[in-house]
Every structure is written in C-alpha cells, then in structure tokens.
Specification:
By secondary structure, this protein is mainly β. The chain has one domain (6-237): Inosine monophosphate cyclohydrolase-like (Glutamine Phosphoribosylpyrophosphate, subunit 1, domain 1, 4-Layer Sandwich). The protein contains 5 helices and 13 strands.
Length: 238
C-alpha cells in the first residue's frame, strides 16, 4: 500500500467526518493515537473534548443549545489496563465492558451496528492499542451499512502487529461531503507518524477544514513504560 500525505488528504477533503489515526512514532518509542470530530449542524459543532480520568468525553460547549445528545455525547477514549480504546461513539463503552469480560475487540463489537441516523447511517469506527512487555500492536474496525442499505451491516476488522516505526493507519467515517454522506470505503489508509505529538496535532488541526472542524485529541504513549502525554484542541475554546 502506498503511503499518502495526511496533510494533503485532509486539506482536500472538506468533510471526512470523524477520524481515527493510530500508529508508531518515527523513532519507534511511542504508540500514537489521534481522534478528531467535525460537524455541519449547530448541534454537532456545539461540542468540546474534556479529560475524563485516563480518557476523554465530549461535552456541550453551550448546554442551552444542545438539542439531541444521543449520538454526539459519549466517551471517545477509555483505558482498560494496558489497552487504550478510541472510537467515534458510545461503542467505546461496549468494547471496554466486553474486553473486561474476556471478549476480544471484534467479539465486543458484534452487538453493535452503524449509527441509526438515516439516510447517512454513519459507520462506527473503532481502534484499540495494546502495549505489553515492550511490544505494541493495534487493531481498527468499521461497522457500516451495505452501500447505504440499513438492512445489512458489513463488519471489517484490521489488525496490525509488530508495528513499523513511522507508520500509522487512518480511518474516517465519510469519503467526503455529500447528501447523504458516503461512507468510508476500503482499508485504513497508510500515513506517516512523526516523533512529536505536537507535530502530529498541528498537522491535523491546521489541515482539517476550518468551518467544519470541532475538536482534536492526540496521545503518545511510551511503549516501554506506558507513560503518556495528551493534547486536546477545541475550536470552541481557542
């Protein structure tokens, strides 16, 4: 698979929706994860990320303008021991609870489907980072309608072992803007992961569409020790 320019990919797509990037820093020492949200409606744009224990959650920036919290208020990131879960919805909790009861990542998601927001039927995208004994692997998942047909759910899981330094994968909910919004297609895209958390955060935030971007989370985890650093950027708090 050819590596794409993350900068170019974001700059040329006004609405990839919500996106997850997972990979390994170029020097090989850090596991990297990023999650961003975008919005076209006032309700979707009225959000910020806030820290919640070792994870984060979404929160209304102006509670008086919140109209429907069902698909926009959730915990995108939770930590279960040596596993970090990143998703675009409340399936974060489904994965956390399933894995806490010895189910696998894939098994935990069997009880979930795409979002019930027809005609878009937004895919549920999820990722999990696993660090143990100085080793690092990760997996990504997408649950989507069958070409816009909500009668069938297509399930795809991608697992990455012995992660290569400087490489990551990028998956997002929509191919581009549209009405209805076309779901992401294919395998997660191969992208470069820099050494610096600040560099990745700046690259993502500066190239996401200025009108539609809402919030960004980036975390780098030391593979040897498990120590991590986190960066959150909220458009509504800048």
């Amino acid at each position: 698979m050819q590596m794409i320019s993350l900068e170019k990919e974001l700059r040329e797509n006004s609405y990839p929706g919500r996106g997850i990037i997972i990979g390994r820093s170029a020097d090989g020492t850090k596991a990297a994860a990023a999650y961003f949200i975008m919005g076209r409606s006032e309700n979707s744009r009225n959000r910020i990320f806030v820290e919640d224990g070792e994870g984060i959650r979404t929160q209304a920036f102006d509670p008086s303008k919140l109209t429907d919290p069902s698909l926009i208020i959730y915990a995108p990131v939770r930590v279960l021991g040596n596993k970090t879960i990143v998703t675009n919805g409340d399936q974060t909790d489904t994965i956390y609870e399933g894995m806490d009861h010895q189910l696998t990542f894939e098994q935990s998601l069997r009880s979930r489907e795409f979002e019930p927001d027809g005609p878009n039927y937004t895919p549920r995208i999820s990722g999990i980072l696993h660090l143990e004994g100085g080793k690092y692997s990760y997996a990504m998942s997408i649950l989507k309608s069958n070409n816009g047909n909500p009668a069938a759910c297509n399930r795809y899981t991608f697992a990455y072992e012995n992660c290569v330094a400087g490489e990551g994968r990028f998956i997002h909910t929509y191919q581009c803007d549209g009405n209805p919004l076309p779901s992401f297609e294919g395998e997660p895209k191969l992208v470069a992961i820099p050494d610096s958390m600040e560099e990745l955060a700046s690259l993502l935030w500066e190239n996401l569409n200025g009108d539609n971007k809402v919030s960004l989370f980036v975390r780098y985890i030391d593979i040897a020790t498990g120590a991590y650093e986190t960066k959150i950027i909220n458009k509504n708090q800048k």
